[in-house]
Design a protein that fits this description.
The protein is built from two helices and 17 strands. It has helices at 128-134, 270-278, and strands at residues 18-22, 66-72, 75-81, 93-97, 106-111, 122-125, 140-144, 158-162, 173-174, 177-180, 201-210, 213-230, 255-268, 290-293, 310-316, 321-330, 333-341. It folds into two domains: 1-22 and 200-269 and 293-342, no CATH class; 37-192, no CATH class. By secondary structure, it is mainly beta. Helix content is 5%, strand content 36%. The chain starts with 17 loop residues before the first strand and ends with a strand. The strands form four sheets. It has a five-stranded mixed beta sheet with strand order 2-3-4-5-9, with no helix packed on it. A four-stranded antiparallel beta sheet has the order 1-17-16-15, with no helix packed on it.
Length: 342
């Protein structure tokens, strides 16, 4: 039996473990510049209305856009969203050819009955053996999002859907299987991620596998200590006023905050997700069996109250490498850390 309260990864009991880490110590040495393709169908920010120029049209009111990418069945699959979603759920997912000069976009599509904030920030392939056993034939993708304040669910959300045919009509609602969906703060529920903070950030996920073991992981920035809505320096913004003065920079950003933040990876047991699929567990019941702190591997010096430490992640099953992006690690530039899974 695994200890679900563990604060660090127990390599002897985890279905999949991180065994080594590599990251550049002089990140400025590794700068490179790739070509820019301006006709790719995902143009963030977007209003998610199909146009003759691509899947999305630009919108001047969109802020803090969300986007996800995954390569599967020789196409690039993507999802997108924004900080404040529309009341009427709109399509969030699509795909495109790998020929970025002629992308032949397909979609956009909706994901089942998922909450609008719960599906459009990370995207990864479900382990083929697991999906064949529990979901059915074909390639399945896992998609999800965490939106601060618990609007998406008070913990990372995850839904599985089968890769649709390219000619699936735009606006189609794709069948999906909820694997993780905690109660949202909008519903006032109590089924939440253990140790949950409204200030948490879960920026990416991956399905790790090595040999006959596997794990579903989410990387992000975990809030610790107290949690409040207001400003980084501890000034609370009350719901009904009177309102305090806005603190001077760099403490003038209003949002959810915690006493301190820590970069971590959450590990979920795929057997728990299988129990959700069969109805033995509710989608709000799975909890991480291990939490790995990666704070000591980060390169940038930050205040303990600085969020936004981790960005997207990706796993290459061929090489067994897990890639985790550290945001603002080299000035304004990110740095990608690489772990071997074994």
């Amino acid at each position: 039996m695994r200890d679900r309260s563990t604060a660090s990864l127990d390599h002897s009991s985890a279905p999949a473990t991180i065994t080594s880490n590599w990251s550049p110590r002089s990140p400025s040495r590794y700068h490179s510049k790739a070509p820019t393709y301006r006709n790719f169908p995902l143009q963030a920010p977007c209003s998610r209305s199909p146009t003759s120029e691509g899947i999305c049209s630009t919108s001047p009111v969109t802020r803090s856009p969300r986007a996800a990418l995954e390569f599967a069945e020789d196409r690039i699959h993507f999802a997108w969203g924004q900080h404040l979603e529309e009341d009427d759920p709109t399509p969030t997912h699509g795909s495109a050819s790998t020929d970025l000069q002629d992308p032949a976009p397909a979609g956009p599509w909706r994901i089942g009955d998922a909450p609008p904030y719960a599906t459009n920030d990370y995207l990864f392939t479900v382990d083929p053996a697991w999906s064949a056993d529990h979901l059915g034939a074909g390639t399945w993708l896992a998609t999800g999002r965490f939106r601060d304040g618990g609007w998406s669910g008070m913990g990372p959300a995850l839904y599985a859907y089968q890769v649709p045919l390219d000619d699936t009509p735009p606006g189609t609602t794709l069948d999906s299987v909820p694997l993780i969906q905690y109660d949202t703060s909008l519903d006032g529920g109590s089924s939440v991620l253990d140790g949950y903070h409204h200030s948490d950030e879960w920026a990416g996920g991956a399905w790790l596998s090595t040999g006959d073991t596997s794990a579903v992981v989410f990387a992000g920035t975990k809030g610790r200590g107290d949690c409040w809505y207001g400003f980084e320096n501890g000034v609370v913004w009350p719901e009904g006023g009177p309102y305090p003065d806005v603190p001077p920079a760099p403490f003038d950003a209003r949002g959810w905050w915690s006493s301190e933040f820590e970069a971590v990876i959450l590990f979920y047991d795929p057997s728990d997700l299988a129990a959700v699929e069969t109805g033995l567990l509710e989608s709000s019941e799975p909890q991480p069996y291990a939490i790995l702190s990666i704070e000591d591997t980060l390169l940038a010096d930050r205040r303990v109250t600085t969020p936004g430490r981790i960005g997207g992640i990706a796993y290459d099953p061929g090489s067994g490498f897990l890639y985790v992006m550290e945001l603002h690690a080299d000035g304004a530039h990110p740095v990608v850390h690489v772990w071997a899974i074994g």
